[in-house]
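Incident log entry.

Two folding requests arrived from the same account within the same minute. Monitoring flagged them as a possible duplicate submission, but the sequences differ. Recording both here for audit purposes.

Request one:
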Amino acid sequence: MKHKTMFCVGAFALAFAAIPSGASGPSYTTIDVPGATATSASRSNTQGQIVGGYTDAGGSGHAFLLDKGAFTTIDVPGATGAGAFGINDSGSIVGAYIDSGGTEHGFLLDQGAFTTIDPPGSTLTDAFDINNRGQIVGHFVDASGTTHGFLFDNGVFTTIDPPGSAFTQAIGINTAGEIVGAFEAPSHHGYLLAKGIFVTIDFPGPLSTDALGINSAGQIVGRYVDASHTFHGFLRDKGAFTTIDPPGSIFTQAIGINSRGEIVGDYQDSSGMLHGFLAAP
């Protein structure tokens, strides 16, 4: 069951709506781009800046940065679509864009300058996260069609593949260099890579798990698929799992968690509309 992590890849205004939640649960806020057909929030940093992507009415994907209620659209020059997937505390942003020929590349946006991120020999690349040391993780597809995770550190690419994996994504990284992601061998599992050791992350019971984000405290967020094939978000804290589902959601991904424990991601409502969300502890 190979499934890629879902991210959404002009002038507009962001709309926010508080979603009531139980007293013991997080406080949810929906993030929507008015006029868009889909919105996703991917990461937030310590300053509360949020990056993500949206699809406009014409079907084109754009990245955005949300900062103190104001937003900036991020469009890679010459690209036909883009999404922002990671941001660190310095404001460096990573993501992916599609070039005029239809090929997908990773990118780094740092101090206003774009740099393409493509491991050697890749035919498709997504850059998913960047930590405060500037280390970048993502995935790429090689010439044989196999998907691998990667770490990009000081100009050097390192391939990330848990033993026996035929499909790997490296999706989140914290300042300590701990990496989370997903792999198939052959069933679909999340993983944590810390100090060279892979640990499998599986939400108890469900069919599959993806670990999508990790913060400096080692809290992990992601998504799992239950027996009815419904996607739910989760938080893993000190080994204990909690489901993350905004009220009214029929599909949820918890994608990023910052050092304050704020979670961002996306969810789908009963009408099929995809929304971004912020969950505050």
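Request two (distinct sequence, not a duplicate):
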Amino acid sequence: MLGQHPELYGFPELKLFAWDQGDAHRAPGLVRAIAEVVFRGQSPACLASASGWLEERASWSGRDLSDELQRRIAPRRAVEKSPEHALSDQALGRICDAYPQARFVHLVRHPLTTADSMRRHMRLTDADATTFCLFTWYETNFRLVELGTRLGRSQVVQVQAETTLSDPKRELARVAAWLGLRTDFAAVDAMLHPERSSFARPVVDPSLGDDNDPGFLRAPHLRPVISPPPLVPPVDWTGPDRLWTAITNLSATFGYAVASTD
């Protein structure tokens, strides 16, 4: 949605800073981005050219590739949303080292719906799957809260997914204003149409793998969500009480209702 703002450019998941700078990993989303930005399309021929282009630059760091993509989309600013970047302090540190003035949108989502999505996406079926997913939710969001504390409100803004999907015009205008972007009707309306993105459809070469959220690619149009009920432990919770307490406390700071145990 943000990437559809006239002054922004929304990339698929590039994962450029998820691993050490010397890693030669090339994410499927990066191949698509190079195909679109460098070769002006995402046909099989463009994707093959993009793969070759990346092979010729195997020594480039994530910063090198990011700089090149940003140069080619200028004056628009890049929006990148790789979940892997929030999974370690090292990945966030690499972003901050490369771009000290980077802006971060900390997108929060209800822990139980997040855990459900993670289980489906990762095809987890063991007894501890929900607890693992909820621990990951807590660890990731706690890490991003700490990032916000270090960098301050000028560089990190918190956005609740459910509120944004229920009142997108207001929330998107708020984020655009925080970024110093246009907030007129045309700019806000453009953000209501994520389906217009060049990356809002499955890749033509499935062998590349996932480059974006599969649910989004199946149905990329904006759709409202039902607000989740007050937070209660799931029936298959197997973790310690102190972890559930930490999850509920953090959820409350994000604005989610927590069921009373009295």
